[in-house]
Write a structure and sequence with these properties.
Blueprint lengths: L19 H23 L9 H8 L6 H12 L2 H18 L17 E8 L7 H10 L4 E5 L5 H9 L5 E5 L2 E5 L3 E7 L8 E8 L2 E9 L9 H16 L5 E6 L10 H4 L27 E6 L2 E8 L8 E7 L4
Parallel strand pairs: 1-2, 7-8
Antiparallel strand pairs: 1-11, 2-4, 3-4, 5-6, 6-7, 8-9, 10-11
Helix pairs in contact: 1-3, 1-4, 3-4, 5-6
Keywords: Membrane, Transmembrane, Transmembrane helix
Organism: Paeniglutamicibacter kerguelensis
Protein name: Vancomycin resistance protein VanJ
Length: about 325
């Protein structure tokens, strides 16, 4: 007769308890993930107290950098929950800003037989290099050149430098436009400031007309951005009232795409992505840019290219976009 011996049930492994420092690190990861996520989602609702709103809005795209730091800390803590929480800000950043960094070259339409290339730069007053910037932008294939922060005499210098190929121009205060094509219906815009820092004109080409706005918004600082906000609000209202089918607005808006005051503009105009992707930061030029203050916005046009380029001695990079003309 055989005797069967019951085998002992397998021992269940007890979950390993985290050490105190690991629990503390996990708590920091959870807090960091929650804070960065909330700021990315609700940055435009942060109260404008002591300039906090401007700082948070402009920092919003950079908050995605918290994701890899939090993930590394979560892995060090050896907490699965911390790892899961660390992934949340990464997903939120992709949802909020990911579409803006996709290269335009992936989806841009082919250039037609008739295109228009528009360039714009804040040339930085006092450098004496306005004509140099204009010549470099002209050599880059621009059909229309818009410059901001012109100082005494620099407008005349640009006109003299470009006169042979850009015989049409319109200058208002510190903002000017030079064009290969005729300009019509040109007028200054004060946009609530009481002095002129913007203009509008119509570019008349053989393949249709385009309404152009060139803008140099007032400066924005944490505790002093009211004039800029008013300019952008009035510009947005002007654009909404403009019945032109094809519209381009360029210039130094002194606002990033994440700025709550800039959002009123993107409700009526679109900002194309960069040819090679990413955000296309324009300021400062050196040692590296971390804000896009200069923009090309459009309505009713197919954008085939959009990029930033250096020109002259400005602390801003220039923006340059090419569109298919309306009737091409």
């Amino acid at each position: 007769m055989s005797v069967q011996t019951a085998s002992a049930p397998p021992r269940q492994r007890k979950p390993r308890r985290l050490l105190r420092w690991q629990r503390q690190l996990r708590a920091l990861v959870l807090l960091g993930a929650l804070l960065s996520t909330l700021l990315m989602v609700f940055h435009s609702r942060v109260p404008d107290f002591m300039g906090l709103a401007l700082l948070v809005d402009n920092a919003a795209p950079w908050l995605g950098l918290a994701a890899p730091v939090l993930l590394l800390a979560a892995l060090i803590s050896k907490s699965r929950g911390a790892v899961a929480f660390a992934l949340v800000p990464a997903l939120v950043w992709l949802a909020g800003f990911g579409a803006a960094i996709v290269p335009l070259s992936w989806t841009a339409p082919a250039a037609s037989a008739h295109t228009l290339t528009v360039s714009s730069q804040n040339i930085k007053a006092g450098t004496g290099a306005a004509a140099e910037s204009a010549r470099e932008l002209a050599r880059g294939g621009s059909d229309v050149i818009a410059l901001q922060e012109l100082d005494a005499g620099s407008g005349q210098d640009v006109t003299a430098a470009l006169n042979a190929d850009y015989p049409h121009h319109f200058v208002v205060g510190t903002v000017g436009v030079w064009s290969k094509y005729p300009l019509s219906q040109s007028q200054p815009l004060d946009l609530g400031l009481g002095w002129k820092r913007a203009l509008t004109t119509q570019i008349d080409t053989e393949a249709g007309s385009i309404r152009l706005y060139a803008v140099h918004a007032a400066s924005a600082r944490p505790n002093d951005h009211g004039n800029r906000d008013e300019m952008l609000a009035q510009l947005a209202a002007t654009l909404r009232a403009d019945t032109s089918h094809s519209v381009i607005a360029v210039g130094d808006f002194n606002a990033t795409s994440a700025d709550r005051s800039f959002s009123s503009l993107t409700e009526t105009l679109d900002e194309p992505n960069q040819d090679a992707g990413l955000f296309g930061f324009t300021w400062p030029r050196e040692p590296f840019g971390f804000m896009r203050l200069d923009h090309v916005l459009q309505r009713g046009l197919d954008v085939t290219s959009n990029t930033v380029v250096p020109a002259g001695e400005s602390d801003h990079l220039a923006v340059r976009a090419t569109v298919n003309l309306p009737d091409s």
